[in-house]
Amino acid sequence: MIYLDNAATTQPLPSALKEAEKFNNECFFNPSALYRGGLENSKAIAAAREFILKSLRTVSHECIFTSCGSESDNQAIFSFAKRGTLVTTQGEHSAVYKSFLELKNRGADVKFVSLNKNGSVNEDELLETIAKGGVRFVSVVHVNNETGAINDVNALAKTIKLIDKNIVFHSDGVQAYGKLPFRLSSDIDLYSVSAHKINGLKGVGALLKKKNLALSPLIYGGGQEYGLRSGTENVFGIKVFEYAAREKLSDINGYYDKVSALNAAFKEVLDKSLFTVISDEKCSPYILCVSANGVKGEVILHMLEEFGIIVGNGSACSSKNRFSRVIDACGYKNNDGIVRISFNPYLEKSDVVFAVEKLNECVEKLGKVMKK
Question: Are strands 61-66 and 338-342 parallel, antiparallel or unpaired?
């Protein structure tokens, strides 16, 4: 199998699973228990928390472990988006976008800022909206999960704070963490990350929050995670997250360069007469979004699967929708020929070239059928 849907999820790293397996076996204790095993597990979670913070080079934030990036997004948004004007972009992951829609349904003043052609936020429109005053909360995705467009969230947060220092700024960093070299600025109040996007396990995420922010719980109970996220911690999953993150961060620049080379090799072989490339050179190399002209992305996906090639056709969280709202917002209206290729640094160039050759063949074949 050639797996090219890594933006949807990644294969858990075998070395991380092996290193953490003791927390499923002999060290299975509840980390809230007061006997030795519980205390040791509590220390193990603290070590993971410390590494996540260190990996983002921040001393201004705290790390709260959650069940996923979506939970982290929801907790950030519903904790602080309570009054005034609330601003986000049309390119957000559904965990953010639908949370803002829910706030709008509740009567909140919500603004959705438009996108550039590659899926990045229209910065001029964003800053003009904020300059009008009354904005209390802003959420801008770090890396667009469908096109890979990178928003400079550190710079945006700094500029926004200069306009109004009381605005709370959140960013969904799920597609950025462990992939892009990045230091979490103190201007960013809240930042969401997820384990399964960087070869950890599904069911683990984290929310980084500024130490002085009074975050509200979504889940009440035993008071775990500083009283901000109750529920017995998934020690095994948290440690797999830590060990996978350690591996990814150990050579993040080297991995970035390798993925950039794989992305370039794919685009070099891609038949430009059959496809429109939506992801440009300013996008993360980990994601490449293309559109097949006049052919349905879902059909392409299933044809490639017959060759053992797995790709996506947009966000996995929106796979039931024929047209992507994000791609529509980029200016590609009613386009159902989207194919999202997302890379990992463990792929071989030969596999990538084979995959794109088959992609060209499938779309050319479908095009001939459509013309009959």
Answer: unpaired
What is 309-350 written as a DSSP string? EEEBSS-GGGTTSSS-HHHHHTT-TT---EEEEE--TT--HH
C-alpha–C-alpha distance, residues 133 and 81, integer Å:
15
Contact yes or no for 315/146 (Cβ under 8 A): yes
**Tens digits of per-residue pLDDT, 64-90?**
999 999 999 999 999 998 899 999 999
The residues, any chain, with a CB within 8 Å of residue 331's CB and separated by 6 or more, are 117
Q: Which of 283, 289, 317, 362 is catalytic?
A: 317
Q: How many CA atoms lie within 13 A of 356 on its CB side?
A: 24
Continuous segment of H or E residues that includes residue 191: strand 190-194
The mean pLDDT value of the chain amounts to 95
How many whole angstroms separate alpha carbon 297 and alpha carbon 339? 6
Say if residues 43 and 243 touch (Cβ distance below 8 Å).
Answer: no
Q: Which two tokens stand for residue 303?
A: 């044809």
315 pLDDT band (50/70/90 cuts)? low
Residue 267: closest CA among 255, 279, 284: 279
Residue 199 near residue 12, CB atoms below 8 Å: yes
Q: Is 317 marked active-site? A: yes
**What's the CA gap between 187 and 155, in Å, rounded?**
9
Tell me the HSE value of 262 on the side-chain side, using a 13 A CA sphere: 26
Alpha carbons 185 and 60: distance in angstroms, whole number: 8
Closest CA to 346 of 264, 285, 262, 284: 262
**Which residues neighbour 328 within 8 Å (Cβ) at sequence distance 6 or greater?**
334, 335
Q: What pLDDT, on a 0 to 100 scale, did the predictor assign at position 39? A: 95
What is the CB-side half-sphere exposure of residue 341 using CA atoms within 13 A?
29
What secondary structure letter does DSSP report for 34?
A: S
Give the up-direction half-sphere exposure of residue 279: CA atoms within 13 A in the CB hemisphere: 27
Residue 12 carries which DSSP code? P
3-state secondary structure of 294: coil
| CA pair distance 24, 289, nearest whole angstrom | 38
